Predict the structure.
Amino acid sequence: MSWRDRRLIEIALLLASLILSFAILEFVLRIQYRREHQRLAGKDPNREFCTTAADDPVLIYRYVPNRPGCETNSQGYRDHEHAFKKQAGVFRIVIIGDSVAEGWGVPREQAFARVAEKEASRLLSRRVEAIILARQGYSTSQELVLLRSEAFRYDPDLIVWSYVLNDPADPVFHNENSEAGRFFFRPKVFLFHFVRQELFWFHERIARISCGSEYHELLHCAYWNNIGDYFREIGALARAHSVPVLFLLSPVFEGSSFDRYTLKGLHQRLIELAAHDGLQPLDGLDCYRDHTPDELRLHREVFDPWHPNPKAHAILGKCLAAAISSGQFSELQGGT
């Protein structure tokens, strides 16, 4: 046997061993995934009653349309039915966001979208229709899918981008959606997913060194470039469709007073970034300045700094309506 033949055999054996190792690792990871999936299913046996896997791999999950007991419409949102064709004389708002935008934890009619709809109709003396495209736990990456594929079908006069300070979270690796992302996400290649997961957490551990450990600051520090890309795409889509976007920034309900709110600097950076990319900012912190976080927080017994109670929704809805009727969207308020 020649040296060349021996070399070819060695290469073939090496490739065979690599393929076998890959196959074994893939098999082991699939078994681990199945066990984890069963564990998550046991933690929340009702998870799949209102929620199901999405066809879009970025969305990961969505609500089951028209499911009794889930308050969902035919498009799979916690909202009324809305025709795609806009009626004459109507000023249409599409609100994109997560559980805050959908009004999680409060009666559907008390969500800030419904309050803004009624108050803006009164202030403008014309019918205002608010369409909610929001789902609990969605991150900015998922919300962008809704903007690209669904929002403009409704011929909106205004997009309201509801932003919460946990929105940059990864829908699979972080836990902003009560593990729904982890439950419904199924990797195509489990080994690649495992490597991506390890790199993801390594990146966050490194980021903590310079970004600190406060969760919201860490998210925005570690993923600021991603956030910038998201905002630029939102602005570009708005310009392409000639529809303005109002960037509605919700504060975290922390501490006993907004006067000592520790994330004001982060708010300012986000407001500046949004304005730079052509979005019209409205800081919810300004809407709530005469109140305390304790007045507005949905849950006081458990750690939940993100969800507003009915009073907070009412305040935010009226604040949004005032911004809509203030004249900054006057070029659209006379539209069809």
Q: What stands out?
A: Residues 77-168+223-333 form a domain with the Rossmann fold fold (CATH 3.40.50.1110). Residues 31 and 100 are 36 Å apart (CA to CA). The longest strand covers residues 91-97.
